[in-house]
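Work package 3, deliverable 3.1, input record:
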Amino acid sequence: MNNINSLFSKKLKVLNLGTKNFKDDLEIQGQDVLQLDWSPAAGGDIKLLNIIDRLSSQKDIAVANREAVDRMISSHPILVDIDQAKNAIPGMDENTILHSGPPIEWNRMAGPMKGAIIGALLYEGMAKDEKEAEEIAKSRKIKFAPCNEHNAVGPMAGIISPSMPVHVIYNKTYGNYGYCTINEGLGKVLRYGAFDKEVINRLKWIEEEFAPTVKKALKTIDGGIDIKSIISQAVHMGDECHNRNKASTSLFFREIAVHIMDTDVDMDVKRRVLEFIKGNEHYFLNLSMPACKVATDAAHGIKHSTVVTTMARNGVDFGIRISGLGKDEWFTGPANMIKGLMFPGFKEEDANPDIGDSAITETMGIGGFAMGGSPAIVQFVGGTVEDAIGYSEKMHEITVSENPNYSIPTLDFRGSAVGIDIIKVIEKGILPIINTGMAHKVAGIGQVGAGLVNPPMECFEKALKRFNDEYLEGQDE
Amino acid sequence: MKNTIIRKNAYYDSVTLMSLSSKILDMEGVEEAVISMATDMNKQLLQNVGLATDDSNNAGSNDLIIAIQASNENSYEEALALVDELLSPKSKKKEKGKFQNPKTIDKAVEYMEDANLAVISVPGQYAAREAKKALEKNLHVMLFSDNVSLEDEKMLKEIGKEKGLLVMGPDCGTACINNVGLCFANEVRKGRIGIVGASGTGLQEVMVQIHRLGGGISQAIGTGGRDLSKEIGGIMMMEGLRALDKDENTEVIVLISKPPEISVEEKILEEIKTVKKPVVVCFIDGKEDDRQNSKAYFVYGLYDAARKAVELTGEYESALHEKEKSSPVDVKELKKLLKPEQKYFRGLFCGGTLCSEALSVLRDSFESVRSNVAKNKSEKIGNINDYSGNVLLDLGEDEFTFGKPHPMIEPTLRVERIIRESKDENVGVILMDFELGYGSHDDPVGVTTDSIKKAKEIARKAGRNLIFVAYICGTELDKQVYEKQKEMLEEEGVIVAKSNLEAANIVKEILS
């Protein structure tokens, strides 16, 4: 019996795409109908749809994407060292300053980023005051480059200057390294563009007292501190390791404390170092970010892969990079405004557009992607626990796989969605969700709120077209 | 049989693993099972139960240990398979949170795992893509959307044929599968007549007439209007025919279509020879030439198709005579109402095939009848806004509906035309159809009666009468309540026929 005849003997189970009238009339007849919340794939762009249809039939892509995501999942980030950027980061020299997001020149930079660069030049002693710093920044003496092009990541302005100490993360599985500065805490801090004396003094203290102590402590730990394991546990404790790092910072504190005590430095110094970690509940953000970075870097460069390996913003542009395309090839669109809750005293127009490399966490499937397991953050960004769970669920529609290492308790320990596939993003019209802080658009004021934001669809459209040109142009349709 | 497997860098939380271990231990033939992360404590535990190996001793706390001891190899393999199944992320999928309607077919079939039919009415340029996705998911397809290319239609139907799936459409307005009306369909009796139709309202009319004559429907499969074109080659009609031939609830098969392309017709007629059941072939408005086919009964109108099919089921003959008695219309009296110059009729149709049927009835009795559904050039109406004489208009054609809903959904489209025709001193009769059933407007007569009143008033003021003849394509089971619709028309003095054919015949008698 063929399928048509077998349909005749079954109860109809109907999916209805399009006018709801047909669904209503089927329900009047007592039928099971599921109405789709349909909208045209790829936003109705026929050209993109044709590309998607061509790419969807490519077996190479599925295999490559599987490979890219396997590499992300099996990556194993370990904190092995703290060292100054100029010593640790490849390609970093005395005249290089790294920033967040895709490439950008000084005159287009957002307020907080400009402020942070001024701060960095003051901190490095390259300028004596704000005016001189601006002059230097404008001159071509300083090379600006994205952190992401140097195996590094930075939250908010993401400024890394040569003397700044960075966490050195080693990917035990693939042997690559990643870097990120030390989180300075909240309020007036460099990453939000503040550069007054207090900020510079704190950076100096980090360089001169904090980093050497932690470096010594790390030396005493055989094999370093397992960041992957901390993230796994923290996700079970209500962190999503982007906007909430309470549990992970505590776990990190637990790991490092004894080793700090074991160092030969003054008790007062030990106390200040531990006090600093304890007092900053976002300390771990600057570990979770490079941990994600080493995993996504390990997944970059897989031919035929449409998996996103970077999402980063510089406060003006949002940029993504794709595994199967060039190492430093960015696809950009204007950074969006963040929607969420403002801190008391601030208005929406005070906020800068989306900024920072912290979306590397979402690229790796935590942050906004794991928000369903982080009920405490939900209030902070405005929304309900149900919404958050919904977001985490939805991200599975645009990803290649699930990461069993980072499983979400509220979703019955389902692995978080990992491996954003540009084909799926375009086809389904679902954008990655990013759970992030809002910077004041004026340098140095700090965080003004937190909320949710999406990348612009434009990044994905450009990437898809480029991918099509790279791999399918010239092939028979 | 005992074995210990280490999976590097595969972290699972302890609660998951503990519950997993207990499930494995509960399996028949399993004597010992430790599924845990290789922490020092767990490695010790492994030692204690005698499942430790060199590998497990060297494993790290991020490595997963799967150690199972079973009474035989079979039980071991079963246990291992269950471990994999329970650890696989997909098996943990459970929808939580607010229910959101799925956006895609892929997602929808996760929600409704036993889905078997997709009804698609999205804009044409996207419709083929969705239909293809549905077919890939082994769903039958009702494709209501139009503006789908012939190439796409062919591609979809070939996939459907290959997989044994229905592809009803594109541009398929009506079907009735398992006595469930899809899109535009009337509620009719369940019975033993199976239909495959390449015409929406044609299919509706045959179903309604079968019902009225006491018969019933087993299945009514729509194919979309182009199925019998040369390009498509009747793929779905053939598939439908074969399925109905095999269907034990179907005794008589009816095929409905406009006259097909000749090579396709030959193919279909050839196929009919292999069919065991009687087949009624209705080529609407077709030429009655000598088609030779021992199996098929050829008819050329919708009513005839219905009557032949009911006759062939053999059970309803006595009822037939009763029900076929014509409605008592006193044509002589009606003729007296019209002035000599009121020589012409105007047909204002919502159902395209009903308009074609009226044309085939009326063209023989009048010198000239013109219509926008006419195939032949001399009958084709030039300008739908400037005409005289006998005219039949299908208001569902694109020229009327551009940017508006189809008149079966929104019959008010016709109101303006009714007023317009009433102002033409040469018009004697206005012929209309009303479609009931699923998909159609909730009160098609109700939204029209005012304009009938007004039209009559306009005519009366100009010193003449205007005769309205109507047909309601519907049954007493339809949601709009047939009797009430009929009463409303009769209150306005409208003559209500029992079939589209009868309505056309009444017009013919009045004006010829």
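Residues 46-72+303-471 of chain A form a domain with the v583 fold fold (CATH 3.90.1700.10).
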